[in-house]
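S.,

Sequence below, as promised.
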Amino acid sequence: MLRHEGDPTMTTILTEHRVDAAHRSDTVRSWVRAGVPGRLAIVDRELDPDDSLVAALRTCGIDTAVDGDDLAALVHLATTPPDVVLVAATTPGDAGRFVSVVREQIGCPVLVAWEAGHEGQLREAVAAGAHPVVGQPYHLDEILGALRPLWPTSAPPAPAVRVGDLLLEPDGYECRVRGRTLDLTTIEFQTLALLAARADRVVSRQALIRALWPTVGDPDGAMAATVTRLRRKLAAAGAGPVISTLRGVGYRLESRTPRLSG
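The prediction came back faster than expected:
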């Protein structure tokens, strides 16, 4: 049975994993309330099965198993197939081959976790069909967000995010400014959603690149062009310059900046 969201044990587990308060009250709580059954297999030689992340995932109702060896993991996956596999890019000797075997022989989707300096393994995994949407070190809210579209159909919906006059509906990829719908591309919406999730705080260039442009040849150029288009569209909707730049560091969505006319 899942513990109630106010249970001190759950609070301790989630706090130990340093979950941001906003995500603890929205993303994490939606998983806890839904109690959706499902199994996640994590393949990472650096992750202890008793890590607070694993305990937090289980508290969210996710049956989580951890393997530190890719060959042992394949045996366990074949015996008890999970709904999703999360593999650290540096754990398999051949990341591409591992992902191919899991997708073709086990028949489940694969998320790949990575950090700067391991782009080679990441490219191999992505080329084999993995989703490069989880960064290292791990963050609970990021993993839950990555699991949502791959989880059983009863997975809890993504909570709406409101920042000033902006309202974002992640499941429908909709963004509105005072009720007016903005016509955003997928990458524009994803960029705005990442900034909105951390409103009034700087989101680093590295975090944005890791999440949205991990295999692009010129990620800084692609990111700058996307932010420029977003600013133009937000301004046209009357929202003003809501995205500020901290040169050389990243971008910040200012919740107190918008001052719409009318």
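The chain has two domains: 8-150, 161-253.

Coffee later?
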